[in-house]
Recover the amino acids of this structure.
């Protein structure tokens, strides 16, 4: 069974990516979960992540966090 990631099913991958980023951000920056989630969802990194054509969904949590941190 071959499963392709498309724009219409990409949303299935995003919650786990956001959860990893939230954990990393709260530990690294000492902020609360709500603030971390707000920052992630309003970031350029998330806008790129939710666009399948960027292929950022391939990246692991460390790479995504580095991209997110570079935008500060």
């Amino acid at each position: 069974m071959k499963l392709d990631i498309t724009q219409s099913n990409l949303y299935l991958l995003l919650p786990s990516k956001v959860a990893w980023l939230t954990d990393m951000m709260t530990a690294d920056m000492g902020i609360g979960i709500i603030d971390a989630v707000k920052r992630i969802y309003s970031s350029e990194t998330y806008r790129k992540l939710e666009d399948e054509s960027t292929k950022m969904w391939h990246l692991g949590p460390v790479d995504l966090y580095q991209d997110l941190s570079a935008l500060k």
About this structure: DSSP finds four helices and no strands in the chain. Helices lie at 14-29, 33-41, 44-49, 61-70. The chain has a mean pLDDT of 94.
